[in-house]
Amino acid sequence: MSLYRIVPGITGLALIFSFLALSTSCSEDKVEYAQVKFACTTSINVTDTGVDVADAYVCKNGKVTWVANGHIFTVFFKNGCPFQSGCKEIDNQKPTAGPINSIATTTVYDYGIVVDGTVHDPHIIGGGN
Questions:
Q1: Residues 68, 76, 110, 71: what is their CA dihedral angle, to the nearest 10 degrees?
Q2: Is the pTM of this model over 0.85?
Q3: Which residues sit opposite 73 in a β-bridge?
Q4: In sequence order, what are the beta bridge partners of 124?
């Protein structure tokens, strides 16, 4: 073997081992949490384009009233009713529903609202603490 081949080989191995011996700071990283708060929705205005709040956040034990604003509307829930009082008759004649079911996790309830014969697709977001 040639000395010219051994020296670069040893130098290369020493360089690799020196990189492996360097400390890392990954274990010092701290996890940070952020809390997001939303105002509880208690009334939703019915408009020509559906409702003024596409994603309504309803707090635990909260009730919701849809304000007709001169429109004829009917609300129907697609995959389960979020209200203890039921969801069978929510319209411009009986616009209030609630209180919302108390469940442990926040849940999105997809509902439809027919305003003056046109269907719209907003959401009720409820549950949690």
A1: -20
A2: no
A3: 115
A4: 56, 109
Count of beta carbons in the 10 Å neighbourhood of residue 97: 24
Going by the DSSP 8-state scheme, the letter that residue 18 receives in this structure is H
Interstrand relation of 106-115 and 73-77 (parallel, antiparallel or unpaired): antiparallel
**What ranges do the domains of the chain cover?**
43-127
Closest CA to 78 of 116, 107, 121: 121
Terminal Cα distance for the chain, rounded: 74
CATH superfamily, with its number, for domain 43-127: Cupredoxins -  blue copper proteins (2.60.40.420)
Residue with tokens 């009233």: 65
Tens of pLDDT, residue by residue over 48-105, are 989 999 899 988 888 999 999 999 999 999 888 888 888 889 999 999 998 988 776 7
